[in-house]
């Protein structure tokens, strides 16, 4: 697929950043200018202040952007623009004084992109997304979000990538490379251990140094080293008793000291309680800042709590960021990105992120079949989540449209019944939705009552050749998912599946269930009834076409689960230490559920979360304990079959080379993923196996083979010693295994290093008990 980014501009910007020295400029700035440059556009507006006027003008040029930086005209320092978000650029789609529109492409959510296990495709998505950032006049995209999926109820998991740090880090790195290839910046977020939305602004994540290093920081480390993001955003929460945005250990000692990060660090919007402490900790940009931020910083300098050396250190990073941006290059943005081309990128990515969990000869659908299409979400597909992760897109293609475009006939009695039900739901929710606002999005409609579907299904089964049921879920910023009616299906949904399956099976006809979801749902209680289950996630604005392409066989499914589908929520160890308040998306921002401007420990799992499960997150728990799952991490079926041959592992010094040949042994073209896991039983408390690396084939025709070469390093097999505060590898025997998913090993090879590796690291603050 052709890339759309201006490579030359990106190279020019990078060269500028690497060569410019700002020390002389910094010494020419006044004390006020130095401090104000570190504070965003929330610091207030003085109508007579030229810089404030320029900052306001910059934001007015891109309505709906998140913030701007402080400019200084006399030194040609421009005001740069920041905007959300992870599934595409978020700006206002309409502006006063013009009939032109400024829609952006709604790409598939993070989970969907991670489910492709395809770095090349992820870079292509990032490239298209970054081009819209460039052409709409934005300098830094506040994305990607990449916190680890510690618990399946976290409301922002849809933005994130995986329960595994390697898959998360590699996906984020690919997205960053794609976006930044346009000469615009990324801000990976939220650093760190922000794994719950309820009370996120003052809750304390209490996590051991080993779990922090091996899980919750590891994905960020990979993204930093392989993606080189221009900026990183710290999180709202406390980590072991210290605000993440005010933690020198996280920002200076680990991020910059251990990992060698050279970019800028910014706060999340309104995070923390002390702007001066944030500057001192190495947060270079207070976002968006407030009227008091300047006074707090100046007072701290006067009292000796903050030094000018620390301010100027942060200024150097801020000016280096500005130098890279399109604003510094005076780029003439068009306001006309190629939205049609980008929609095709979104469509392809949405299809390739689909994960086929089950297929009892139900898919692909028979060409031109008459389909009974059930489920409210079939007619109102969910393209993405809410809050900062939403995108103002021009349209969303629903599944009914996608299927009819692919030549299928939909049963009119079913479609008319849903049209009537949706109209009634619109009327019921009209006043409720007026109160919710853009942040929470409109409330999802209830499924058709069981009394109605129980009567409807027998009337249509004889007229149709197959049935499809779509189940929808949406989540967003500021709230966590509920257990009942969300993770667990509602009674009406379970009844719908049972009625459709029983009636269609009685006549020898197949039923497929499509999950248009923001994360895992419990499938254990109904999966045996369905003939096929396809996880479509939230596939962006081309949702209906992406899913229909898979259902009809235009696209052979090749997605793999980026997280485990457990048999029950309670099977996750983190369920014992998570604020499962069943608040759901109640139209309130529960980020401030029990807010305090200092750590308090009154309400378990709200004021604090104890990460007692340590490393037992996702498949690391399930595979180690043998706890049954519905579908394991890395699982995904295809319409074709594959074989793996010539699996080989070689070691040269610290470098590991893995080769395997993949052959398409089936009847249609498709793609497959080789997953490599490592283990060493001699390491105490280490999981049974852990993902080391992975690679995806090209589209292989029937009978075609491809040799995949994967590379790793001795350091990738290290564990973290809290006693030594160091990464270690051992001289005892390791096993490298080829898997088709986390639970299914195909072949293994032994590996032994001649020398142990010990890499000392900065110590981290320990949990406050």
Describe this structure in words.
The structure is a single chain. This protein has 769 residues and is of the alpha/beta class. A six-stranded mixed sheet has the order 1-2-3-4-6-9. Strands 10-15-14-13-11-12 form a six-stranded mixed sheet, with helices on both faces. A four-stranded mixed sheet has the order 8-7-5-17, with no helix packed on it. The radius of gyration is 26 Å and the shape is globular. The termini are far apart. Residues 1-19 have low confidence and may be disordered.
Radius of gyration: 26 Å
| Distinct helical segment count | 21
Strand content: 15-25%
Tally of extended strands?
28
Which stretches are poorly predicted, pLDDT < 50 over at least 5 residues? 1-19
- The computed structural class is alpha/beta
The general outline is: globular
What number is the mean pLDDT?
A: 94
Strand count, sense and barrel status of the largest sheet are: 6 strands, mixed
Approximately how much helix is present in the residues? 25-40%
Distance between the termini: 53 Å
Major sheet: arrangement of strands = 1-2-3-4-6-9
Kindly summarize this structure in a few lines.
This protein has 769 residues and is α/β, with parallel strands linked by helices. 31% of the residues lie in helices and 18% in strands.
């Amino acid at each position: 697929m052709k890339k759309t980014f201006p490579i030359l501009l990106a190279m020019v910007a990078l060269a500028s950043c690497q060569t410019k020295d700002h020390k002389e400029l910094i010494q020419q700035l006044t004390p006020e200018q130095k401090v104000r440059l570190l504070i965003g556009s929330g610091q207030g507006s003085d109508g007579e202040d030229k810089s404030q006027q320029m900052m306001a003008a910059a934001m007015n040029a891109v309505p709906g952007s998140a913030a701007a930086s402080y400019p200084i005209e006399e030194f040609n320092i421009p005001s740069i623009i920041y905007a959300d978000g992870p599934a595409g650029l978020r700006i206002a789609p309409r502006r006063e004084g013009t009939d032109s529109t400024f829609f952006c492409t709604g790409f598939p959510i993070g989970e969907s992109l991670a489910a492709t296990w395809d770095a090349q495709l992820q870079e292509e998505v990032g490239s298209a997304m970054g081009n819209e950032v460039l052409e709409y006049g934005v300098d830094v995209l506040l994305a990607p979000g990449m916190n680890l999926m510690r618990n399946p109820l976290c409301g922002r998991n849809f933005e994130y990538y995986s329960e595994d740090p390697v898959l998360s880090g590699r996906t984020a790195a690919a997205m960053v490379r794609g976006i930044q290839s346009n000469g615009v910046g990324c801000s990976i977020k939220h650093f760190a251990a922000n794994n719950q939305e309820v009370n996120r602004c003052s809750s304390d994540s209490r996590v051991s140094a080993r779990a922090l290093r091996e899980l919750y920081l590891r994905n960020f480390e990979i993204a930093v080293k392989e993606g080189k993001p221009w900026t990183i955003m710290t999180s709202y929460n406390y980590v072991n008793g210290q605000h993440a945005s005010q933690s020198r250990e996280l920002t200076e000692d680990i991020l910059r000291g251990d990992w060698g990060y050279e970019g800028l660090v910014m706060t999340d919007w309104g995070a923390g309680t002390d702007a001066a402490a944030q500057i001192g900790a190495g947060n270079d940009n207070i976002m968006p800042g407030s009227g008091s931020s300047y006074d707090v910083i100046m007072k701290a300098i006067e009292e000796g709590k903050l030094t000018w050396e620390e301010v100027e250190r942060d200024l150097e990073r801020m000016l280096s960021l500005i130098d890279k941006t399109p604003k510094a290059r005076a780029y003439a943005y068009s306001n006309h990105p190629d939205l049609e081309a980008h929609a095709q990128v979104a469509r392809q990515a949405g299809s390739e992120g689909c994960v086929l969990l089950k297929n009892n000869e139900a898919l692909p659908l028979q060409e031109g079949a008459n389909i009974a299409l059930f489920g409210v979400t079939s007619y109102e597909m969910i393209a993405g989540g809410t809050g900062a992760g939403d995108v103002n897109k021009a349209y969303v293609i629903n599944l009914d449209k996608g299927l009819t475009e692919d030549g299928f006939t939909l049963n009119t009695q079913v479609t008319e019944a849903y049209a009537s039900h949706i109209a009634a739901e619109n009327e019921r929710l009209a006043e409720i939705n007026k109160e919710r606002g853009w942040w929470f999005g409109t409330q999802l409609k209830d499924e058709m009552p069981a009394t109605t579907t129980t009567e409807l299904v027998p009337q249509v089964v004889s007229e149709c050749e197959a049935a499809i049921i779509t189940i929808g879920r949406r989540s967003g910023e500021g709230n966590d998912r509920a257990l009942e009616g969300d993770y667990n299906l509602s009674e009406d949904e379970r009844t719908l599946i049972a009625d459709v399956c029983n009636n269609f099976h009685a006549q020898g006809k197949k039923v497929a269930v499509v999950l248009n979801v923001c994360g895992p749902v419990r499938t254990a209680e109904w999966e045996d009834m369905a003939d096929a289950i396809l996880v479509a996630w939230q596939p962006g604005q081309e949702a209906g076409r992406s899913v229909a392409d898979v259902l009809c066989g235009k696209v052979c499914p090749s997605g793999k689960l980026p997280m485990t589908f457990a048999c029950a929520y309670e099977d996750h160890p983190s369920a014992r230490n998570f604020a499962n308040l069943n608040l759901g998306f109640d139209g309130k921002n529960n980020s401030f559920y029990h807010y305090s401007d200092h750590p308090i420990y009154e309400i378990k799992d709200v004021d604090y979360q104890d990460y007692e499960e340590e490393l037992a997150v996702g498949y690391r728990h399930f595979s180690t304990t043998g706890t049954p799952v519905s579908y394991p991490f890395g699982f995904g079926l295809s319409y074709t079959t594959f074989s793996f041959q010539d699996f080989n592992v070689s070691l040269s010094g610290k470098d590991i080379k893995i080769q395997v040949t993949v052959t398409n042994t089936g009847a249609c073209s498709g793609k497959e993923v080789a997953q490599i896991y490592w283990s060493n039983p001699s390491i105490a408390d280490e999981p049974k196996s852990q993902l080391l690396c992975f690679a995806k084939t090209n589209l292989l025709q029937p009978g075609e083979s491809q040799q995949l070469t994967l590379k790793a390093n001795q350091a990738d097999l290290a564990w973290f010693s809290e006693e030594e505060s160091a990464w270690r590898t051992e001289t005892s025997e390791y096993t490298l295994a080829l898997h088709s998913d986390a639970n299914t090993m195909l072949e293994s090879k032994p590996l032994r290093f001649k020398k142990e590796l010990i890499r000392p690291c900065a110590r981290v603050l320990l949990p406050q008990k």
